[in-house]
Amino acid sequence: MKEYAVVMERTKDGWSAYAPDLPGLGVAGATLKATQQLIREGIEMHLAGLREDGLPIPEPCTKVMRMAIPA
């Protein structure tokens, strides 16, 4: 099992998400919960497509952190 970093961003109309280690994969949904499900399914489909095409599965290498900054 691999764990890929996922970035979730609030948009004007809902949410979007992408996985930095999987270029070209991005989703958008009306709610956070819907977008989380879409990105999970998207990652699974993306990896399945790479396998079917005989391409290597990228290793997760992106690190995500929150940084507190006085504002």
Shape verdict? flat
Which strand order do you get reading across the main beta sheet? Answer: 1-2-3
Q: What's the main sheet like?
A: 3 strands, antiparallel
Give the distance, in angstroms, between the N- and C-terminal Cα atoms: 38 Å
Count of DSSP-assigned helices = 1
Q: Report the structural category.
A: alpha+beta
Element string (H = helix, E = strand): EEEH
The amount of beta strand, in percent, is 15-25%
Helix content: 25-40%
What is the residue-averaged pLDDT? Answer: 97
Radius of gyration: 14 Å
Number of strands: 3
* Residue runs with pLDDT of under 50 for 5 or more positions: none
Overview of the structural elements:
- It contains 1 helix and 3 strands; from the N terminus they run βββα.
- The chain is of the alpha+beta class.
- The chain has a domain at 7-52.
- It has a 3-stranded antiparallel β-sheet with strand order 1-2-3, covered by helices on one side.
- It starts with 6 loop residues before the first strand and ends in a 19-residue tail after the last helix.
- The model has no long low-confidence stretch (mean pLDDT 97).
What are the SSEs and their pairings?
Elements: E1 7-10, E2 15-18, E3 26-29, H1 32-52
Antiparallel strand pairs: 1-2, 2-3
